[in-house]
Amino acid sequence: MDTPPALYAEDPAWADVVPIPQYEGVSPLAPIFYTPEYKDATDYFRGILKTGETSERVLELTERIIRMNPAHYTAWQYRYKTLLALGSNLEDELRLMDMYCIKYLKTYQVWHHRRLLVTLLLPAPSTSPSPSPSSNPNPTHLQTSNPTLALLQLQEELDFISRCLSADTKNYHTWSYRQWLLSYFNHPRLWRGEVKWVERLITEDVRNNSAWHHRFFVVFASGHGEKGEDAVREEIAYAKQKISLAPNNASVWNYLRGVLDHTHMPYSTLKSFVEPYTVEQEGRSEDVVDLEDPLPSAGAELPCALAIEFLADVHEQEGGVEAVRKAVELWKSLANEYDTIRKKYWEYRIREALATQQ
Amino acid sequence: MSIYRPTPTDSFPTDTSVLQGETEETLSKHIPSPEYPAQPLNRNAHLQWLVRNMVQGFPTRYTSQDASQPWLMFWTLQSLSTLQAGLDSGNKQKAIDTIMSWQYPEGGFGGGPGQAPHLLATYASVCALANVGRPGPGGGWDEIDREKMYKFFLSVKQADGSFTVMRHGEVDVRGIYCLLVVATLLDLLTPELVAGTPAFLASCQTYEGGFSSSSQPYFSSGTLLSSPRPPLGEAHGGYTFCALASWVLIKSFQPPPYGVDIDVKRLLRWLVMMQGSEIELGGFKGRTNKLVDGCYSWWVGGAFALLEMLGMPAARTEAPTAHSDTDDEWDDVDGQSYPLRPSVVQYSTVPDTLFNRKALQEYVLYAGQHPTGGLRDKPPKTSDAYHTLGCLSGLASAQHHVTPSTRRREEITLLWESNTECAFTEQRKSAFIDALAWVEEEGASKYVGSSADRLNAMHPVFNLTMTHTDTMMGHFYQQTVPPRLMRRNV
Description:
The complex is a heterodimer. Chain A is mainly alpha-helical. Chain A has 16 helices and no strands. In chain A, helix 3 runs parallel beside helix 5, helix 5 runs parallel beside helix 7 and helix 6 (147-167) runs antiparallel to helix 7 (172-185). The N and C termini of chain A lie far apart (72 Å). Residues 133-141 of chain A have low confidence and may be disordered. In chain B, the strands form four sheets. In chain B, strands 1-4 form a two-stranded antiparallel ribbon. In chain B, strands 2-3 form a two-stranded antiparallel ribbon. In chain B, strands 5-6 form a two-stranded antiparallel sheet. Chain B is globular. The relative contact order of chain B is 0.12. Mean pLDDT of chain B is 90; it is low at 318-329 and 331-349. At the A-B interface, helix 1, helix 3, helix 5, helix 7 and helix 10 of A face helix 1, helix 2, helix 3, helix 4 and strand 2 of B.
């Protein structure tokens, strides 16, 4: 803050409020040493909570507390209540939050407050199936009635989220807020651009698991992106290509497994693709460009433990004595050489596979 | 240069791999060497650090946790209990009085005096009271307004079986875990309260196998659709622990089938994949391709025990082939055997964990301990209250094997008295028995250093000691809990 903050205790405009100290009649264990400004503001906040006042000055007070401690959820809750009581301009509040979201990226409350505002500002989705309206007071007078305008506002909100993500590419709150926005408003036009958008983030950092999760969310989990067999083939081809770039990347292997599990495809469909990743580079014959099954890049460090694991799963799914024997050999190589930290797990897989066979 | 292999980058660096590489370089400096011998648990430094926070208070930077005062209290008290220490009766009373000042007049606990009731604050307050409270006037336990608390719980229930953490608050599985723990401890579980919750939890499991923070419901003319119900956010260690522990608690109250299930096999794979490699000292990560962090020692390391309640058998090292291997490996660490605990030598005949418990202990001891007391995320960070408990609980879960015991179950059942008239007495009984059936398996403990590093075993669901859990639940259910056999002295 630029100027030294005046204490509410010294402000005549607040003389009518009785400040309430935090602990009365209790000598607390494990207290926090507050600054005088924080103590002053929260003493007056407790005074306000007691009288139940909702006014402009309460908005100013809660903002001051939030700036000193953005995790003060009661200040947020009371601020929300006050905004509603005063019929405040929620657009203005949202613009104020633009600044706070970036400044306090890691607090739950800034993102949740934003969600409450957006829920009020934009019309509730009318398409069926519709999200639960249970916690939405739906004051229709606040909302945009023009659907085109609403779409533009939603697009603006997505752009804002994109800017936040470029500052912190794996922020959990930001990602889940984006996923909420998409699925809650469920606007067909909004879904349309998402795969292209997230593709850029994956290109920037192929190991960004949040981006991979988002891709899965859009294409499969949301129920709005899947477009039949072609889409699935496309996703598998995309994952293969990213594996060939840098095979030792758990995010893309998890994605690939996710796609196969979601669509009930047997892992064996990828057997010939996976095999070159399970052996050392030198052992390979000269590269033949295979668009279907791209080979590991020249810089790949092989054999890749994730590929060995995958191949073992292929064998296990095949079943039969010979296939399980092959799987066991692969698991042993993980336990003893390529992924020794998970030795106990690989031994467990061996025991389970052998037990199933008996 | 480390003797361990860095995570392969395939000659294709990105922001993630660069940060990972830097972290591995820092961490590998903490791998014991002749120059820097292995550190034991610095019990005294941690105790002093905890007591200083408790008695003198927390420095100004903790203002960011002013709305989490119950957490500061719980993390500190529970860390002391893990370290087998406790407060004197004067400070205990001060703690009780402080905690009770957070109870909200209309039910539940807030993050400080006058703060709105919140599920997380309620969990932390009640679990702090499990540590220091007692029955009777001034003891806290009987001053918890259970009736109003139950009303608060119902007031935040949502149509999809989830709960918001407070009025106008967000939905996430942390809140559900907190609510279910408190409801179980205080005998507040009802079919009404948890209706629809299993399906909500299951919907949070992602394609990776771990759980996300929440999911988006869809309704068709007022009816909740079973699909789509997409998880919001990627699989995450903290949420995964909370979802799994909630699943375990609900399982005992509302027996399956729920019409939905979780994929335990995929969950197990995700959990083991969260363990960092040798160069990261075997600490746990919270998400795929993120960095190891001491707090996940508990959220992820501690989650393995919960799988046993879902019928996944503990790993058993097969005697006698692996016998010598296992013991040699452990002896290498400190070059000594364990003369005081003969049972340890018989390691091959007892259950083992599916994660690398030796490596996790090493992470906490070598990277997690701050030289001046308290524990941390990773070096060179400073220690804090949250990471201190996360590291200590994780270390405890790597030292001991805690498992549901049939014998313990029988003992509790034998003493059970039907003392309420309600429509769900059988579920209530099974919730009680399931919660108290966990035992620390005799002779299954193992230490990287020596048994001087022993911590108390934690209840895998509540993160309380077994004794505190027994006493509190016995009181609120008005049941006699059979005493636990004294552990053989170490």
